[in-house]
Amino acid sequence: MTPHDQAPYLAANVSRREVWAWAMYDFANSGYTTVVITAIFNAYFVTVVAGNQTFAWTLALAVSYALVILTAPVLGAYADAHAAKKRLLFVTTVGCVGFTALLCFVGPGDLWLAIVLIILTNFFFGSGENLIAAFLPELAPGEALGKVSGWGWCLGYVGGLISLGCSLIYVTWAQEQGQQAEQFVPVTMLITAVLFAASSIPTFLYLKERALPQPHQGGRRVVRESIARLSETLQHASRYRDLMRFLVCLVFYQAGIQTVIILAAIYAQQVMGFDTSDTMLLVLLVNITAALGALAFGSVQDRIGHIPTIALTLVGWIIMVLLAWAAEGPAMFWLAANIAGLCLGASQSAGRALVGFFSPASRRAEFFGLWGLAVKLSSILGPVTYGLISWITTGDHRLAMLATGSYFIIGLVILMGVNVQRGRQAALHGEAVL
Predict the structure, then answer these.
(1) Are the beta carbons of 266 and 42 closer than 8 angstroms?
(2) Cα(149)–Cα(293) distance, integer angstroms
(3) For residue 379, what is the DSSP state?
(4) pLDDT, tens digit, for every residue of 261-281?
(5) How far is it, in rounded angstroms, from Cα 339 to Cα 324?
(6) 26 vs 154, 202, 225, 361, 398, CA distance in Å?
(7) Backbone φ/ψ region at 394: left (φ over 0), alpha (ψ -120 to 50), beta
(8) Which of 61, 80, 167, 224 is at 20 to 30 A from 288, Cα to Cα?
(9) Would you give the DSSP letter of residue 15?
């Protein structure tokens, strides 16, 4: 079967090539999260730019996530009304790639420049992440959402591996030449930006905008209309109470996940004594296990159900936190990190698929805007909590990591009240009404 052929697990008139093009955006943007947020620039920001102030890093990210929270639902409503997901995705891609490239100008002491650029890059990244996710329910039927979402996450981790691998090759060469972090880290920002731009090209060539424009107003009333559509959704939230409950659940467990993503490299260096190369190798291997987790659990989710799959990953996260907290040597920490990788791929893919399962077709971008709102709220809650605890305790990263585990426990408790079938029926009924 060629990439153009119809596959039984895809929606009508969707080819494998189009799904590959959609998944290639996960491939493209994962380099940004892996190199900038997780492995290289975050540690560089804390140690070289901000003088070992972790709270400055978490605060900068919190501002960017707050901007996404304020804009994501309105952007989603606008995208639905104007059938503009792909156009907006192009704008966010250009923004993230451009400002990531500008990070190459950040050096020692350039704290405010670094903060402004991180806020902008992460804002455009988060907005694009919501928009690409909104295409998912158009590509696969409800019973195959987990599988297709898992493919995207899996390919995304491969993209992160390639970006990090290219950066690692350059960093290793630069260190052999006697260069310091302020010399080689900026170049990795250019590598990341170029790979992001090049890898996203298939998405814009082959991914289709299937939605049709809905009745809407033009001119200066566009924002007002988008807010009105969002208000209507929130006013009828009781119709989608399982979606709303899951979004609350997602805020808590994603708070733990985002803390690990954003601060894992810092924890490895500050607590376990890893250097830059050790940290990059760690993240490289974690991306491999994350890809395997996303691929394997995508199929598992479609077989055993959304809730059991997510619950299983949350138990894994709790075990991971306990191992990282107790680790005195590298062996236990490496074990914890790879458990995190497996759970990361699985939980991220499963959550996105469940939101798609609960979303009415005419409001997919809008509902994925709510999903983005929940994820970004968690991205403020978790890392800022970690940063505050480490600041108040003058650098007790172990206690901060242990506190992170509480978010997974809360998420697991809330998850038990989500009824998948009721949530799906609400989405189907809502589509008939809206």
Answers:
(1) yes
(2) 12
(3) H
(4) 777 777 887 888 887 778 888
(5) 10
(6) 8, 11, 30, 22, 32
(7) left
(8) 61
(9) B
Nearest alpha carbon to residue 65 among 376, 424, 309, 398 = 376
Three-state DSSP at 6 gives strand
Residue 309 identity (one-letter amino acid) = T
pTM: 0.77
Q: Which residue type does 167 have?
A: S
What CATH number has the domain spanning 16-210+223-433?
1.20.1250.20
Tokens representing 177 are 């030449």
Alpha carbons 54 and 43: distance in angstroms, whole number: 9
92 and 127 in contact (C-beta within 8 Å)?
Answer: yes
Residue with token string 């806020």: 119
Q: 107: helix, coil or strand?
A: coil
CA 416 to each of CA 5, 245, 251, 383: distance values in angstroms, whole numbers, following the listed order: 39, 10, 15, 25
Residues with Cβ within 8 Å of 72's Cβ and at least 6 positions away in sequence, in order, are 126, 127, 130, 369, 370, 372, 373, 376
User: What digits encode the pLDDT tens for the residues 281-325?
Assistant: 888 888 788 777 777 766 676 678 888 889 999 999 999 999 999
Q: In angstroms, rounded to a whole number, what is the distance separating the alpha carbons of residues 112 and 424? A: 46
Residue type, 34: T
Residues 112/204, Cβ–Cβ less than 8 Å: no
Contact 92, 28 (CB under 8 A): no
**End-to-end CA, the chain:** 38
Contacts of 91 (CB under 8 A, 6+ apart): none
Cα separation of 400 and 394, whole Å? 11
Look at residue 4 in the predicted model and tell me its pLDDT.
Answer: 47
Over 60: is that where the pLDDT of 329 sits? yes
